[in-house]
Design brief:
Blueprint (H helix, E strand, L loop, with lengths): L3 H15 L3 E7 L10 H7 L4 E7 L2 E6 L4 E5 L4 E7 L8 E8 L3 E7 L5 E5 L2 H11 L10 H10 L4 H6 L9 H10 L13 H20 L40 E5 L2 E5 L12
The protein binds a DNA duplex through helix 6.
Length: 279
DNA sequence: ATAGGCGCCTGCTGGC
DNA sequence: TGCCAGCAGGCGCCTA
C-alpha cells in the first residue's frame, strides 16, 4: 500500500503522539505477519522509553532510548495508529503496544499481512538489516552523479528501475507512474537510454510529486490511513495512476494501461512517447 | 551479479 | 441478485 508519502505521513502523525512515551505491555494477536514475532522481542521492548520515530524509505523505525529498534513495514495494507485503549480493536489487528503515561496504545493492523515487524537490540543490527537489502538513496537531494550513473548502468525499463528500492527508495507503483507522466517519459523506456536532461527531469519530477503527495498526507485508495487514523488526499491529484481510458490532463488523449515489472502501469501515449523527444 | 516471474494474503469490484 | 475471476499501494525467494 503505502509508498514514501504515506509512510512519511504516518511518521509525522505519530511523532507527537509517541513523544516521551514508554511502552508498557506488548500484545501479539491473530496470524503472523510476513515474519513471525519472536517472543524475545516482547521482553526487549517492554518498559522501554521511545526516543525517536523516523523512516528509511518505506520502513518505519521506532528507536528506544536503550538503543532497541522496532522496525515496521506497512506492506500493502498496513496501518500503524494510536488509539485510546477504550476503542474497540479492529479486525486483523496484529500488534498492540500499550503506552504510558496515559490511556493510549499503538496498534498495527494489516489485513493482507504483507507487512512486517522486527526488533533489533542495537542500531548496528538495524543497519546490518538495511545493508543486506542494499537500500538505495532517499529521493530528496539525490546526487546527480549517482543518479546518472545508476540509470546508465541499468538495462531495465524505467518502471522496474523506479520500483527497485536498491536504485532509489520510497517510490512505488503510484508515484512511479505519476513521476513518469510528469517527466513525459514512457515507462518502458530503458533506464540506460535516458539522455542526461531526461534523467534530471525524472529525478526532479519524483521529488516534486513526492513532496506534493506529502503535503496532501499521501494517497488513500482503499486501506491507507495516517498515524492518527486520517485518510490521505493526494488520490484526487492523480494524473496517470488509475486513470485508464480517461483523458490525459495535459493533452486529452486517453490514458493507457500496460503491465510492466508485473505491475499495472498508466501512461499517456501522446505525452510519454516511446522514442525520446528531440532536444 | 542481474533481471524476471511468481508467491505470499485477504477483500473488493466488475462483468457475466 | 449472485458468483467468481481478476486485481490491489510491496517485498523476497527462486530460477535462468
Amino acid at each position: 500500500m503505502p509508498e514514501l508519502p504515506e509512510v512519511e505521513t504516518v511518521v509525522r502523525d505519530l511523532k507527537p503522539l509517541l513523544a516521551q512515551k514508554k511502552i508498557g505491555s506488548v500484545k501479539i494477536l491473530g496470524k503472523k505477519l510476513r515474519r513471525p514475532w519472536n517472543p524475545l522481542w516482547t521482553k526487549s521492548l517492554e518498559k522501554q522509553t521511545l526516543n525517536k520515530i523516523h523512516r528509511r524509505g518505506k520502513w518505519i523505525i521506532l528507536s528506544m532510548k536503550s538503543g532497541v529498534q522496532l522496525l515496521i513495514h506497512l506492506g500493502m495494507t498496513g496501518q500503524l495508529c494510536v488509539f485510546d485503549q477504550q476503542e474497540a480493536l479492529k479486525s486483523h489487528t496484529n500488534l498492540v503496544f500499550k503506552l504510558s503515561p496515559g490511556n493510549a496504545e499503538l496498534r498495527f493492523r494489516d489485513v493482507r499481512r504483507f507487512g512486517s515487524a522486527d526488533v533489533f537490540d542495537t542500531e548496528k543490527e538495524l543497519q546490518d538489516f538495511f545493508a543486506k537489502r542494499k537500500l538505495g538513496p532517499e529521493p530528496f537531494n539525490l546526487s546527480q552523479e549517482y543518479w546518472l550513473s545508476s540509470l546508465a548502468k541499468s538495462s531495465r525499463n524505467l518502471k522496474a528501475f523506479l520500483l527497485d528500492q536498491q536504485n532509489i527508495v520510497g517510490v512505488g507503483n503510484i508515484y512511479a507512474d505519476e513521476s513518469l507522466h510528469k517527466s513525459r517519459l514512457h515507462p518502458s523506456r530503458l533506464a540506460c537510454s535516458l539522455k542526461p536532461y531526461e534523467a534530471i527531469l525524472l529525478s526532479n519530477s519524483i521529488e516534486e510529486i513526492l513532496n506534493a503527495a506529502i503535503k496532501n498526507r499521501g494517497s488513500t485508495i482503499r486501506n491507507y490511513v495516517g498515524g492518527a487514523g486520517l485518510m490521505g488526499g493526494y488520490q484526487d491529484e492523480f494524473k496517470a495512476y488509475g486513470r485508464t481510458g480517461l483523458p490525459c490532463m495535459n493533452c486529452g488523449n486517453s490514458i493507457q494501461k500496460i503491465v510492466l515489472a508485473g505491475r499495472s502501469s498508466h501512461f499517456c501515449p501522446n505525452c510519454q512517447p516511446k522514442k525520446p523527444s528531440k532536444r
